[in-house]
């Protein structure tokens, strides 16, 4: 925890002079998503507030916001913890992803599409694979899907999926073999990109739907083995 708090203190500069609960929640959301605070971790008000240099009230409001986003959970007389997802949570996340991501691709309109950032995410994944950095590959995979959603040009959809993708990262942190989880999807990301580059919106949607179904099956298999329905993660 000391190492995580030291890195969190580096984020104080992001708060500026007008620190707010929203800015604090943005920082903590990112840190949770990146695995600095893994699922099941108790978040200390004193330690985190001290690292960020914010008041207890500001921090509590940030915790409340992230609890509303289902990233944290408050346990009576115990404190605030990073949430441990259940199998049902994972299934619901993927239902939401399929509904939103496939609808975005279906509604793209006529090509050409603005795919530069999508291509950058594929390249990011390739670099991570070349370096054997499987956690970074998982991050690149999330970036790919985030940029896919961004093709809709909807701030509301981006905001909705930001929380969904952050929850998804909680599931990824439970997986004991991130290479096996993420590596097969780099080629699939590239196939979706190539279909969109060719103007094949329908083909891209088909590839995406199969992709999400396979990804759900793989991660649920891991979850049933490692977490099941025990909210403590035991």
What is the ordering of alpha helices and beta strands? HHEHHEEHHHHHH
Note the total helix count: 10
- Estimated structural class: mainly alpha
Low-confidence stretches: 229-234
Mean pLDDT: 89
**What kind of sheet is the major sheet?**
3 strands, antiparallel
Strands, count: 3
Q: What characteristic shape results from the CA principal axes?
A: globular
Helix content: 55-70%
Q: How widely separated are the two ends?
A: 20 Å
Beta-strand fraction estimate: under 5%
Q: For the CA atoms, what is the radius of gyration?
A: 18 Å
Q: Which strands sit side by side, in order, in the main sheet?
A: 1-3-2
List key phrases describing it.
single chain, 234 residues, mainly alpha, three-stranded antiparallel β-sheet, 10 helices, 3 strands, disordered C terminus
Textual characterization of the structure:
The chain has 234 residues and is mainly alpha-helical. 68% of the residues lie in helices and 4% in strands. It contains ten helices and three strands, in the order H-H-E-H-H-E-E-H-H-H-H-H-H. It has helices at 2-9, 21-33, 45-52, 56-68, 87-106, 116-130, 134-150, 155-172, 178-197, 201-226; strands at residues 42-43, 72-75, 79-82. A three-stranded antiparallel beta sheet has the order 1-3-2. A hairpin with a 3-residue loop joins strand 2 and strand 3. Helix 2 packs across helix 4, helix 6 packs antiparallel against helix 7 (134-150) and helix 9 (178-197) runs antiparallel to helix 10. The protein is globular. Mean pLDDT is 89; it is low at 229-234.
